[in-house]
Design brief:
The chain is mainly α and 243 residues long. It has two domains: 79 residues, Endonuclease Iii, domain 2 (Orthogonal Bundle); 102 residues, Endonuclease III, domain 1. Helix content is 52%, strand content 2%. The protein is built from twelve helices and two strands. The site of iron/sulfur cluster has 13 residues, from helix 10.
Length: 243
């Protein structure tokens, strides 16, 4: 016969309840953490407002996506699109990129910040893709991170958009919005990524980072967030909401 558990044993066997205790904020005030139900509601609203969010970098295949993301570091998506539109019409494989060559690539992308270093990396990563991956984009974040100019954020974007992996690519928008809403108190992309992976309900994992980027770009802007027009204003924990 199975042994009956005492109340204490039953309680010890349960997972520890998630703490909603207030946490310290910038000004020393305390703010309450988001509950699981509130996080669920945030993403339910994002999904209802924009069921199929898309990244804004133009591309035609995984290779051009990878190149576009590499070029987008410290540049706007609109600026990258302007430069890559003509480029990607004729260059959409690592082989064609090598045939184009570094000098011609520099000409195409010279309107983008850090274009010299980026052109060098795009040529080097094209060489490596041909040499080590048969000219294909590997569907593996660790392998992607071995490519010149490809960091964790870029690898997460490619894994998400090209291969449908529920990764959390944390850029400046995602970091700021996650901090303000109360989704994460992490101060580094890696810390915020870990919080999002742990807290975002799985059914929203694929699109979560897109919703957060778009929210940060168009509503929860760095200088003056548009709080009156924000669809999660009642849940957001930011203490300095605009009126
Ligand atoms: S209420 Fe304001 S601070 Fe909070 S998420 Fe919305 S726009 Fe950002």
């Amino acid at each position: 016969m199975s042994k009956r558990l005492s109340a204490d044993e039953r309680s010890a066997a349960l997972p520890a309840p998630r703490s909603h205790a207030p946490r310290a904020t910038r000004g020393g005030a305390r703010r309450r953490g988001l509950s699981s139900a509130e996080i669920q509601e945030i993403f339910r609203r994002f999904a209802a407002a924009n069921p199929e969010p898309k990244g804004e970098l133009e591309h035609t295949n995984p290779f051009t996506l990878l190149v576009a993301v590499v070029l987008s570091a410290q540049a706007t998506d609109a600026g990258v699109n302007k430069a890559t539109r003509a480029l990607f019409r004729k260059v959409d494989t690592p082989q064609k990129m090598l045939a184009l060559g570094e000098d011609a690539l520099r000409e195409h992308i010279k309107s983008i910040g850090l274009y010299r270093a980026k052109a060098k990396n795009v040529i080097l990563l094209s060489e490596k893709l041909i040499r080590e991956f048969g000219g294909e984009i590997p569907a593996d974040r660790d392998a992607l991170e071995t490519l010149p100019g490809v960091g964790r954020k870029t690898a997460n974007v490619v894994m998400n958009i090209a291969f449908g992996a529920p990764t959390m690519a944390v850029d400046t928008h995602v970091l700021r919005v996650s901090n303000r809403i109360g989704l994460s108190e992490g101060k580094t992309p890696l810390a915020v990524e870990a919080d999002l992976l742990a807290k975002v309900p799985p059914e929203y994992g694929l699109h979560a980072h897109h919703w957060l980027i778009l929210h940060g770009r168009y509503v929860c802007k760095a200088r003056r967030p548009a709080c009156p027009a924000c669809l999660i204003r009642d849940i957001c924990r930011f203490p300095d909401k605009t009126l």
